[in-house]
Amino acid sequence: MLSQLLAEAPRFFTYYNLVFLGQAALNTLLVSLVGCLVGYLAGFLVATARLPQVMPWSPVRGAMLLWTETFRRIPFLVLLMLVFFGFQLSGAQASLFTTAVTAVALRMSALAAENVRAGYESVNPRQWEAALTMNLAPLSALFRIVLPQAWRVILPPSTIHTVSMIKETSLVSQIGFLELTFAARMLNQRGFSALICFGTVLVLYFLISWSFAQVGHYAERRLVHGTRAGQGTLRPVGSIA
Amino acid sequence: MQLQFGQVLAYVPDFLAGACLALAIAFVAFVIGLTIGLLGASLHQFGPRPVRLAVRAYVSFFTNTPQLVQIFFLFFALPEFGVTLSPVQAVLIGMSVNAGAYLTEIQRAGFQSVRQAEIDAAVTLGFSRVQLVWHVIAPHVVKALYPALSNQYIIMTLGTSMAAIFGVEELTGRALNANAISFRSIEIFSLAALIYIGMTIVASGILFGLGRWLFRIRAGA
Predict the structure, then answer these.
(1) In this prediction, does ipTM exceed 0.95?
(2) Which end of chain A is more exposed for a tag (fewer CB within 10 A), N or C?
(3) Which pTM was predicted?
């Protein structure tokens, strides 16, 4: 096993293959980060529109609940196919990148909405009542009173979600978008052994997601030290059970 | 272009059979993963330092790489060494080992939440390590971590969809086949999505009820 690897390595790690893998890694990062950013903004809006203090119309709140529950409970692969064929049906000339980012963003919006909701719920309802009694507008109560207390609960799981989305984007290879998994399959089909192709890509994925997790741990320790952010450790936030 | 669901409704029984296969795969992988996790957490708790490091390396590697690529590796790289796995075997092994890493991590947290007095009491009563884990720690872990464990089960039910990529004919696999035959893509994948949503809602409901009945705790939304 090792001798085979050593024999193949000089043929595999050429300049062009490394550039190819680097581009693929960049694509993986780009899709997951852009998708997560858009998804997080959408999820924030969805969670906020579920607050009775902010959104007085219950049909809208119900629609937001439906949105979250739907996109949380569809496997990413099926969601990807729906987005892919949905763009085709609508006649929009969407690039593979747009398709992939849309799918990531839809999924992330549901995860983020649950996450933000958990943050909102961690704030004592009296805080809302007091703020509204002081005649603050609902949105300014949200931004000045509730969010400053809620973000400590919101922040730590968001890095976990981002890392898990980086891993989920491996499924985007199924629609032919050139990211790490697709690159590994292409190199494998060009005649390199599956061991070296998928092994290299596994290591690359590990480096990316491990370093993101470290940044998350650091931010968590640094920003949320000694607050109640730790209380959610036994129950994963964004759980669907 | 118009959506036509009439033609697709004929696929419903076929899809439901696929859903059963998906549930079976998720269940088997979950049980194996739970066993690996219990073993991993016990080794991490009681093992010597090298073993502990090995468990940590296992968890950190498998939780930081995509499940899909892990299964690709099993499916394509092992035959180069004479081990050929069928698609179902590759998916089951991949999912179990992957879930084992997550479940080790979850149960490790549970191990640390067992009160020292309970462990001391068991040791005083002459329990061996295995008895201690099985009779004292495991029941506690299952109860304390019920929400996290049931969440993992739901995630795994959704995760079975990637078996389709390897040609396993579970729900997504059947949807892909039906799509290739009828080209009613949106209708077919919406139907599959609906079945997944129904499946996970029913599973959530059952797990919630089970948790209430077994432990009198709330298992989440």
Answers:
(1) no
(2) N
(3) 0.86
